[in-house]
Amino acid sequence: MQPDVLVIGGGNAALCAALMAREAGASVLLLEAAPRAWRGGNSAHTRNLRCMHDAPQDVLVDAYPEEEFWQDLLKVTGGQTQEPLARLTIRHSGHCRPWMRRHGVHFQPPLSGALHVARTNAFFMGGGKALVNAYYRSAEALGVQVRYEAPVAQLEIEDGRFVAAHTAAGERIAARSCVLAAGGFESNRDWLREAWGRNARGEFPSDNFLIRGTAYNQGVLLRHLLDAQGADRIGDPTQAHMVAIDARAPLYDGGICTRIDCVSLGVVVNRQGERFYDEGEDFWPKRYAIWGRLVAMQPGQIGYSIIDSQAIGRFMPPVFPGMKADSLPELAAQLGLPVEAFMRTLQAYNAACRGGRFDHTVLDDCRTEGLTPAKTHWARPIVQAPFYGYAVRPGVTFTYLGLRTDDTAAVRFGGVPSANLFVAGEMMAGNVLGKGYTAGVGMSIGTAFGRIAGQNAARAARQQPPRTLANVIADDKERDTHASA
């Protein structure tokens, strides 16, 4: 039987779309490329949602108003963002949690000693896997049909209208409307090679990249839409949510536990033993995702995070222990770094450290002076043995090349929005994220556009005009008002 709405994808954005479409009365079929045990895509590896709020709210402390959220996003993207869509995402983030709770998502209370993230981000109890499982349970209880191991190879589109999807197995599935939420192309090694090209030695830098999330985001539909169907594109194929992760991490699905979080507490050097960026630029949740790209631009796409014993206990400990030594020359030798160059770097850094009271919870005045690159906060000499070093490589979470859309989540062809084909999640995140990242914003984008895409897909199935994301926000506000009355 032909469904009203076909949802292609199995992560947060796809599930939000399926739930919203079903709540609107549409019959829904969801196709997930992965087996059931690996369902959920990159969402299974997430931990939190960045949320706007004007006052303390359940699991969120203090306030994080729209303008501060916007300025944080503006800073990390360097202005490469579509402001209207970004602001809609921000506003939606302040009202979506009650809807999420109705579908079984639980949030954990704020943790002591984690003020910055407890103020800006709501953490999922049990992490992203628990969120994904809750959404699947709710979807199945509501009658959403789910099929696993069902990757889609191409779409039938006529004059900008979705007609049917063709699976990799050759099955044709027609529907009245469709939501695309199948992720980026970060798992496609050939496409990464194409995007990043060769270096001067004829090597492919991207061969050294690790993929933090799912192996199933191959970008097949994204390429089909862009190249074969002529959908409007947005974003740079080399831009991505890219984090510095342990060089020993697995090729796929290492997730959060592979991240190295001590960067701001020490220095980072390349394989020549030289520093290359300000490790103390800003709080780690705002700037952690720049470090993957920074390392990607270094020789051999590798870096080394160096700390001393003063840093121990101040960051999330990694799964794999770092190299440990009683002296800095010994540490350099263990890491395979040129000892003399490494020692020149560390001695120059130690001599340049200035400032007063070290405080990793604020932008303190511990800085370097007369050093390039500077370290602008949390700079204190690395002198207390034992010393630790972690080799890091670029860990790609998701890519930003995607489909251009608007506040209805419609896919656009030649500037004209489709009447029945919508997009959400990583396939359109480049509309908000031209570059850079700040913790939890990917889930904010996926939740906002997943919900409006699902609602509009249900409306398209009934041949009703689309609504905007602002309408969803208004509905949430009205529901919140009635709930508190």
From TrEMBL:
It comes from the Bacteria. Residues 4-432 form the FAD-dependent oxidoreductase 2 FAD-binding domain. Gene3D superfamilies: FAD/NAD(P)-binding domain (3.50.50.60), Succinate dehydrogenase/fumarate reductase flavoprotein, catalytic domain (3.90.700.10). GO terms for molecular function: oxidoreductase activity. Keywords: FAD, Flavoprotein, Oxidoreductase. Its cofactor is FAD. InterPro entries: CobZ, FAD-dep_OxRdtase_2_FAD-bd, FAD-oxidoreductase_2, FAD/NAD-bd_sf, Succ_DH/fumarate_Rdtase_cat_sf. Pfam families: FAD_binding_2. This is Tricarballylate dehydrogenase. It comes from Pseudacidovorax intermedius. The lineage of its organism: Bacteria, Pseudomonadati, Pseudomonadota, Betaproteobacteria, Burkholderiales.
